[in-house]
Design brief:
Keywords: Coiled coil. The protein has nine helices and ten strands. With 363 residues, the protein is an alpha+beta fold. Among the domains are: 59-138 and 259-296, f41 fragment of flagellin, N-terminal domain, CATH 1.20.1330; 147-252, Immunoglobulin-like (Sandwich). The chain has a four-stranded antiparallel β-sheet with strand order 6-7-3-10. The protein has a four-stranded antiparallel β-sheet with strand order 5-4-8-9, with helices on one face. It has a two-stranded antiparallel ribbon with strand order 1-2. The protein is flat, with a radius of gyration of 28 Å. The two termini are 29 Å apart.
Amino acid sequence: MVNQITSSHNTLRSGDSTQADRVTKQHPVVAVPKVDEKQQKQQQQQHSNLAGQKQGSLLVQTSLAHRQAAQAQSAQKALQEAGDLLNQLRQMARRSLNAQENKKDQLQQTLHQLKNKLVKLTRESKYEDEPVLHHDLTPRLSEQPQQEGFSMKGLRLNTMRQQDEILRFQFDSGTPGTVQVRINNDENTTEIADKMSQAFAPRNIQVGVDKYGDLSFSVPKEQWPEIKKGVWMSGGGQILPAGNPVKAKLESHDKQAVEPQELEFGKPQSTRKALADIERMMQKIQQALSQMSKVQRQVSQDLERLVTTNTMKSGIVSNDGAIEASWLEAPENVSLQLMDNAVPTLLAQANASRHNVVALLEP
């Protein structure tokens, strides 16, 4: 599975200046930023959670593997259904370009119905009430968070600034609805990006500087459709125009990304464009299905490692293939019934029979 990536200050007392200079040359004094206590506690908690997860019981680890496998299977099924609908859309769109006038209305109606089914599938395909597809038909797995990179046109950062400026950003959807940041007149692009990242943090938007020296934005992929609905900008006349807000031009870095709801079949020109988009979407689905297969194989390998590396005695697997979990105390959020159902399923995915598991566990 894809791994989730989730100082001291020395001073010298006054005294022997020669000794102090010698010490300073050997060990230069470096000012280290003060660590925020709250942030330090959060980092300690994260390290504690990770350590606990690594040392956790077989029950906990197997439960996680079960969830990963089931989520990937749900995404795989949804992608296959999406591929079938896209194939039908492609056939109908081709027919509509060559159809007689008296048959075009019926084909248009069919195209509209298929498109609505695809949009509904994208939004409603879920596992444990969590969507398994993104807006552009890419798989949405909790263990593999994805970012949507985008640019925001209209920010004038290369002009001479004579005074500080307050930038305001208003969002058509989501909360908070307004974000503002004060930019000092002597701050460079990197400093501006850092300030904007702090201001946009409530919207989970990160701001950086790309290789061309321009601001680059990113947001969790599942939140991109909400951001894309509209952002309005205003300022003091230097970086952004003063007065009434102007709508920002947002462009995704993925130029090939297409959403099912963007497909249009009303005119021959739009239908030809939709056919090209459908081809790209079908290619993306094939890549995603290959990715899901890799996820499934990785889960099986992880499970096999759990079985072979855990220091367990033979006899924990009963005659009917179920795991005898009474030998280990289960955590509060993991029921024995869940493990009794989940573990045999995963063992089957790993091609590990009960007899093979017992053989592996025997000293």
